[in-house]
Write a structure and sequence with these properties.
Layout: H1 6-9, H2 13-50, H3 57-93, H4 108-113, H5 121-131
Length: about 130
């Protein structure tokens, strides 16, 4: 499965390049989104530091909640970006589009909806059942 030709993956070089461009484009979008979120987080911190006079418990709680939300957003963006980075690595290795659990091809429809998918529907459902 690590061979990069059409026999191993069922994709032509043109199809592989189209997938690569799509994955890279989304990775770049997430990178820009992350950088924007970092800037917004820094602005929030600066406002917070400069505007603490007269804060009561409710004000402090609101600021803490805003800070937690901003940090959660940053983590979410980084996680999604890491998924696309992993998908690009798998594409380079010739394993993109194949389930990491059972090795079966991941349906094209699933990859169109969730391009960074690493498992087929059956393996994903099994993993979610075990986690519940």
């Amino acid at each position: 499965m690590l061979v990069h030709d059409k026999v191993a993956t069922g994709r032509s070089q043109a199809e592989t390049e189209q997938i690569r461009q799509s994955l890279q484009s989304r990775y770049d979008e997430l990178t820009a989104e992350y950088e924007q979120a970092v800037l917004q987080s820094q602005v929030l911190r600066l406002v917070e530091v400069g505007d603490t006079a007269g804060d009561d418990q409710a004000d402090s709680g609101t600021k803490t909640a805003e800070r937690d939300t901003a940090q959660s957003l940053l983590r979410t963006i980084l996680d999604r970006r890491a998924q696309f980075e992993h998908a690009l690595t798998r594409l380079d290795e010739g394993t993109y589009g194949f389930c990491e659990g059972c090795g079966a091809p991941i349906p094209v429809e699933r990859l169109e909806i969730f391009p960074s998918a690493t498992s087929c529907v059956a393996c994903k459902q099994n993993r979610e059942r075990r986690a519940a």
